[in-house]
Amino acid sequence: MEKFIKNILVTGGAGFIGSHTLITLLENGYRLIILDSLVNSSETVIKRVLNLSNLHDKKRESMAIFIKGDVRDQKLLINIFETYTNSLQSIVAVVHFAGLKSVFESTKFPLQYWDSNVSGTINLLKIMERFNCLNFVFSSSATIYGTNNKNLLIKENDVINPINPYGQTKDVIERILNNLISEKNKKWSIAILRYFNPTGAHKSGLIGENSKGFPNNLMPIINKVAFREIKELEIFGNDWNTPDGTGVRDYIHVMDLAEGHLLALEYILDKNNKSNFIKLNLGTGTGTSVLELVDTFSRVNDVEIPYKFSARRDGDVSYSVADISQAKSKINWNPKRNLKEMCRDSWNSYKKQKDYKFRKLH
Ligand SMILES: NC(=O)c1ccc[n+]([C@@H]2O[C@H](COP(=O)([O-])OP(=O)(O)OC[C@H]3O[C@@H](n4cnc5c(N)ncnc54)[C@H](O)[C@@H]3O)[C@@H](O)[C@H]2O)c1
Questions:
Q1: Distance, CA 178 to ligand 1 centroid (Å)?
Q2: Annotated catalytic, 166?
Q3: Which of 30, 84, 145, 166 is catalytic?
Q4: Residue 3's pLDDT is what?
Q5: 291 in a domain, yes or no?
């Protein structure tokens, strides 16, 4: 008899974190319906994920279905739930990555951010409720925490006070999810995952962090400097209250994050668990300064990263590092990959993607 296979809808599955999570979910026997508008990704990523997943050709087609579309498209969502809901199988959960993620862009185009992130999530939750699919894993962010210049590890119940539209959209979605949990007659199970600084890539290098437009995160910019597309790295502030004066962050390997999603999903699907609502920081619990990251990247990859210091930027903080004891105790998550692996995998993936694009042009 065929093992009961669970259908999971993954929104934003062609993106950086989504694509790596697809691999982990496929390896663990889930059937995936992947919805992505490709506003910040490409369909090639899905093809590569399927090639990396060790499933043979016939099985691939039935285990991962890609649909190009927007989470704000109500008709499309209804169609997806109708198609995959019958007496034998239904969509048991949604892992929701889809959204816009640039802090800087969100200050320039706040309406786009509120619409895509908040309206998109409300739309999705309404359709899920209609089809009685009440298990939800949500991508939140460390950006929602208030300014922390005391250099203490951040705990989940610390003050929430986002200072940019992007972080505010995440905060509002978290509040909506809190409301759903307190509804009396419905039994939602929800995992909110607050990522710190995702980086690295799958060890194959075939997928990675490939935002359209200029990147906002540090590692993709370091890759560009290493590839000599940018002359030097601009480091904002060398007078922070940290050992070397540069900002300290908590970098987390994207494959460790992917495993965190699997564990969180399994937690909310297991109705024997005590709680139907978990909010977890996903980081390593270890802080790394900008200069330490640059130094590790240079040594591991044997490439020079020229840099210069500029003034601090508004809204930056000296220190943002997670307390991850909740994720360890509640879902038994233990990130395994270190900073050297993050630097090596990130550069390996960047070079491979560049080489691929170069070969396509010539
Ligand atoms: N990467 C980070 O540093 C980071 C940190 C904290 C939280 N997050 C959150 O994690 C999630 C995934 O981040 P990522 O780094 O993989 O970003 P990403 O941009 O690589 O992936 C997001 C994906 O969602 C798709 N998308 C965007 N809007 C959509 C819409 N309205 N409908 C359908 N698809 C849509 C994009 O095309 C993209 O493939 C996002 O919600 C982001 O806010 C990311």
A1: 21
A2: yes
A3: 166
A4: 55
A5: yes
